[in-house]
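Possible race condition, two jobs.
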Amino acid sequence: MNDLALLLTPEGRVLLDEVRDTDPAQELTVATRLRREHPAELVSAALGQARLRQRAVVKFGAQDAGRMFFTPNGVEQSTRASVAAYRARRLAESGVTSVADLCCGIGGDAIALARAGIRVLAVDRDPAAAAAARANAEVLGLAGLIEVREAEVTEVDTAGYDAVFVDPARRGGRGRIFDPEAYSPPLSWAVSAARRAPRTAALKIAPGIPHEAVPEDAEAEWISDGGDVKEAVLWFGTEPGAVRATLLPGPRTLLSRGLPDPEVRPPGRYLYEPDGAVIRAHLVAEVAEELDGGLLDATIAYVTADELRPTPYATAYEITDHLPFNVKKLKALLREREVGNLTVKKRGSAVEPEELRRKVKPHGPHAATVFLTRVAGAPAMLIGHPA
């Protein structure tokens, strides 16, 4: 918080612009030079903030990240801008005009909500996070829509807001927290706050949450961006009991139809690797039905089919070889086909991809993908390429 106060001064802002593109390898040299003209504390704060801004580009884009203010936890825990924008659009399209953003951190979600035209009360108990959220609202021209309050979220009255958004802290001193009741605040409190919202509510949770922990009156949504699963959201006041997987960019959304598990069948010409959000949402059966396919193994989320059908919910590979797991046979086959660019994917196998690569020593001008998995319970290797 003291660092932020220094950086918000005219001298601090000028220094931030000067160190914007500093190479981390040159920090010591730059710091030594700048300390001849500026206080050491300010120089350290500026270089630290420049480093955080560089890390934040992947989440916020270069334009916003280059102007915003971050804390180390804020960079790690804030929502990716594309995901926050998608969620804000959902709220705006449902008629929400005001949101109480509880556990707002450095304000990533509040920014997306305000840009969707929604009035936001952003609350966090961490003084540094609240100060950064306030500074970010101002620097991005959104202060008229975002009120930042430093307070315990459990003590905030949200009655005057259409919706509630809660992003509980899921990291502690020992790293990630997997028990939802160990979140801060606990998931049970967040659910109670959501149920009191006049119109709707959204709770951001870890994508690994067990399905049995999802309340019956909630909609559960798993979201991926560019193929990487980013989060799960519990929605209240929307479609109780609904389960969906949403893929960004797009968005493209797959809804559960309550289908039974697909049948296990022999490998076909094509293997489909479902998006991670589809797998987390337990919607592999919906994808398999769309593809007229089945599973290679009852416990593994690889779909096999005889036809190539376009789908946004899975990546297709054409399979050329199906072998029992045998490193020597794989090495010989790859050598025969002069495969040097080898992609190794695994699901249901104890073999690590890098370990396999060291053993087979791929070499040559051609490319291939090998899947280490099980077929009807037996360890197997499937070789192919993107379809």
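Job #2 (started ~2 s after job #1):
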Amino acid sequence: MATPRPGRAVRGSSTGRPLMAALDLFGRRWNLRIVWELRNGPVGFRALQERCDNMSSSVLRQRLTELLDAALVEQHPDTTYALTELGHGAHRALRPLVRWSADWAATLSDSEDAR
């Protein structure tokens, strides 16, 4: 499956809208997790694999290829992987979702405690 790109049809949309391409890219299993795990700096392949619950090496390679093609991740000469500036922007965009998910978890916990 080709890497989603703005301006091209993607899963669930033929419009080529950038948001739809981003949702397709991030909707692919592990892509958001990889961005999250690279947020603090470069990581080697094996360490990244371990951080991602030991996903298979073939899936990790495929996902890294997609993120490299999408210009969110770069591979350094020492073979570590890191977020590009665009990738850091994606991480920054996720922060409100992280805060919301904590509120959601607390709300559900509070409602379960009240039962």
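The chain has a mean pLDDT of 93.
Logs attached separately.
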